[in-house]
Amino acid sequence: MTSLSLAESLRLQRHNEQRRIWMLLALFCVLAASFVMDIATGPSMLGVEEVVNVLLRLVGVPVGVQPTSEVIVISLRLPIALMALIVGGVLGVGGAEMQTLLNNPMASPYTLGMAAAAGFGAALMLYVGSLGLSTEFAVPVGAFVCCMLSAGLLFGLAMMRHITSGQLILAGIALLFLFQSLLSLVQFVSSPELSQQILFWLFGSLTKATWTNVGITASVTLVCMTLLMRDAWKLTALRLGESRAKSLGVNVARLRLKTLVIVALMTATVTSFVGIIGFIGIVAPNIARMLVGEDQRYFLPLSFLVGAFLLSSASVLSKTIVPGALFPIGIVTAIIGVPFFFWMIIGKRTH
Amino acid sequence: MLEVRDLSLAFDDLLLADRLNFQLQAGKIHVIIGPNGTGKSSLLKVLFGDIRPQSGDVLFDGERLDYRQTGHWRQRFGYMPQDIRLDIGLTVLEVVLLGQLDALSLKLRDPLIEAALKALDQVGLLQLAHRDVRTLSGGQCQMVLFAQALIRNPRILMLDEPVSALDLHFQQVLLDHLYQQTHRQHWVSVMVLHDLNLAAQYADNLLVLKGGRLIAQGAPAAILSPELVHEVYGVSAEIAYDQQGVPFIRTPRRGRPGQSVAAPEAQVRAVLAG
Question: Would you call A294 and B89 a contact, using CB atoms and an 8 Å cutoff?
Fold first, then answer.
């Protein structure tokens, strides 16, 4: 081992930070590519160049495009592609922060029953006939309310002074089973057509994306991400363990509650619009952790980018596996997520 | 000065502190010893404001610890809990940086990094600065956490069994550094130790706890005796003194009746002087 001076060591640290920034940029480029691909694929295939031109024109660069492709991109494909980025990113970040809070690499908002609760809320709304409101409005609201309700139970627990992360996980898993059973109950008592509708919602689909939905989720995400980034160092400290984080001056109970509320809000928002999309919450943060470590200044944004990339590329796949047919994206993510997951587990052993 | 008044603490029916009273002066190393499970770590947590006692007060320079508002109180502490596992994807430098948590922002300024590197240098770990902490040994982790506590520039430094995983070299590095800094910076240093010999060597003030009571308190040479060791641990020990008058405790191996394993006092002296 060569001997390092303080100055060299400082430079090395700067170099490491730079490397992580390059990693973020690299992922951003990959993401941009899959985003364009996502817009290009569909029943009528568009050229990559055409898509890029439409996007350029949208941001004010004067380039000539065909009016039909402009309509397809802007009114049909762009909201869906953007939704894929936001939802994937939110699921990635939600997983990253749950893993941080609970000190467990297998945690995600799903582990704590948030998705199951949203599913139950949506199913219940469909069952009661949307309470006379429009389905497009009532179902997301039902999902959101139920998701926050189950998260509220966790908030209550998290506020207790001496609750450990292990106890929180157990409580979350109990909630997961509770809401899954309730969901099954609703499906059991529903008519076959209604049951079909519920099942379709549960699959998760981006096709429900509209510019309004995109606007809402983007705003919520922006606010939540800003709040999380402000706590980046505290969250990093939390991963040292609860007693050590306390010793560094972190108010662990407050940080845990605050982060839980933020993650629940983000997760509930995206889940209520697109349904249940599995695995990204677990896989994305684990990939991000491998690439840049757990300094949350990089880990948090990279979890977003990886999650966004995974869902965006899953969206491309869901449209291209069988040309002309659209596979539910929730199914696709699980199918491509599983090999990733295995690779991760096995990779860890050889590490 | 850190002061404890009439402190009582119990978990269910386990009494850990029974109206304890003591004062810990600044610029001195205070070592707490006592049998396993007697509440030494819990006492540190009470001082830190993490466990609320049933009754009694903790004061620092006259200011009372308010258990509902611990933020300000904890700022003066460097606290190194007993657990030394570091299972996180960070480098050694990043873990030490976290010691200055309140000063960290998204863009790290050079002085913060330099301070962390200096702290590592002081404990002889500069070469490990960029290693992933998951590749370190237990003892190396312990030194990293010590550097993290140091960098807080604390007024009160609490170390819970800080040398439990250290080899002789790092034991000496840590304790010597603690000794110098405590006297130079006028810290109140509180340390839980199990090794009575280290306690005797480094403590300015030794606090002997058992069953929630302070059995003895004072300079090690003044209070350590075979009777005390027997009372606290139920072990018969022999005590010798080196040339500086520091007590040296040794417990004979049991199970060989009629055979004394105690070295003659002269031999002990020779070893210590050598």
Answer: yes
**Chain B residues touching A250 at Cβ < 8 A:** 101
What ranges make up the beta strands (E) of B25-174?
28-33, 55-60, 63-64, 77-80, 156-160
Relative orientation angle of helices A135-159 and A252-274, to the nearest 10 degrees: 160
Q: Do B88 and A17 touch (CB under 8 A)?
A: no
Assigned domain for A5 exists:
no
Count of structural domains within chain A: 1
- Nearest residue, CB atoms, A247 vs list B79, B93, B104: B79
Q: Determine the CATH number of domain B2-235.
A: 3.40.50.300
| pLDDT over 70 at B274, yes or no | no
Q: From residue B227, how far is each of B38, B108, B204 by CA, in Å?
A: 19, 55, 21
How far apart CA A311 and CA A81 sit, in angstroms, is: 9
Chain B contact for A106 (CB, 8 A cutoff): no
What DSSP state is assigned to residue A73?
I
pLDDT digits (tens, 9 = 90+) for B75-127: 899 999 888 888 899 999 999 999 999 889 888 899 999 999 999 999 999 99
Q: Cβ contact (<8 Å) for B80 and A246? A: no
Q: Where in chain B are the domains?
A: 2-235
| Nearest-by-CA chain A residue for B115 | A6
Distance from CA of A304 to the nearest CA of B (A): 17
* Residue A305 belongs to domain spanning: 16-350
What is the distance between the alpha carbons of residues A239 and A294, in angstroms, rounded to a whole number?
9
Separation of alpha carbons B186 and B26, rounded Å: 5
Distance from B72 to chain A by nearest Cα, in Å?
Answer: 9
Token pair belonging to A265: 């809000």
Q: What digits encode the pLDDT tens for the residues A54-108? A: 898 888 888 888 888 888 888 889 999 999 999 999 999 999 999 998 888 888 8
Kindly provide the ipTM of the predicted complex, given to two decimals. 0.84
Of residues A273, A339, A349, the one with CA closest to residue A310? A339
Give the CA-trace dihedral at A295, A238, A231, B108, to 10 degrees: -40
Interface of A with B in 272-301 (CB under 8 A): 289, 293-295, 297
Residue A349: band (very low, low, confident or very high) from pLDDT cuts 50, 70, 90:
low
Split at pLDDT 50, 70, 90, the class of B257 is low
Q: Give A295 to chain B, closest Cα distance, Å.
A: 7
Q: How many CB pairs under 8 A join A and B?
A: 90
- Chain B: closest CA distance from residue A163 (Å): 13
**pTM beyond 0.90:** no
Give the pLDDT of residue B273. 52
A289: in domain: yes
Mutate to test the interface with B, among A1, A233, A255 (most CBs of B within 10 A): A233
Instruction: Tell me how far CA of residue B146 lies from CA of A9, A337, B113, B154, B162, in angstroms.
Output: 20, 41, 17, 12, 8
